Input
Amino acid sequence: LAKTTQPISMDSYEGQEVNITCSHNNIATNDYITWYQQFPSQGPRFIIQGYKTKVTNEVASLFIPADRKSSTLSLPRVSLSDTAVYYCLVGDPARLTGGGNKLTFGTGTQLKVEL
Amino acid sequence: EAGVTQFPSHSVIEKGQTVTLRCDPISGHDNLYWYRRVMGKEIKFLLHFVKESKQDESGMPNNRFLAERTGGTYSTLKVQPAELEDSGVYFCASSPRWGGPTEAFFGQGTRLTVV
Output
């Protein structure tokens, strides 16, 4: 699986937009980019997944440039409840989950949102 | 629909004792995974079931760990005998069998403390 690099921590204030960038220089043709969120004392929770360009859902947006060597998770107007660790994962979805293979978590980005 | 449930939520045992963790995946999910985070490190893959069969157990640390999924429904992870370094949070996740981009659903985890 492609190695990912993301900031260890980020701080923000309520109401701001937060962008977390993940580098994945060795991404393969079949790889998708997936982001998970984890709150203390809970398991990781799927946020969003994409292959190229832009993906948006009710929670976040995912921006992927043409070379796909990086991606940016965008959280609009964060609140205190968005304080969590955010993980960027890269891999072939057929192997990541449904087709059945392991997820490789890195250190993640600890986002802290303050008033 | 019920999510992935794990039992117990916390367990404190003495070194040398046996502990059995249980995971109930989402109904109908053929894929079941065990992960763990120890000593504040990254979440690491342990093993993967497809129904009752072990698809990948490359992450199991040693033969003190035994995972089963009889009947392809719930799964158990037994640690016998437990050692201090086994302390950590054990996560279970499940996903549907079919391929394509999808997500893994995680339980809340079992916090194991070996003293």
Notes: The interface with chain A takes residues 4, 31, 33, 35, 42-45, 48, 50, 55-56, 59, 91-93, 95-109, 111 of chain B (CB under 8 Å). The first strand of chain B starts at residue 5 and ends at 7. The mean pLDDT of chain B is 92. The two ends of chain B are 37 Å apart (CA to CA).
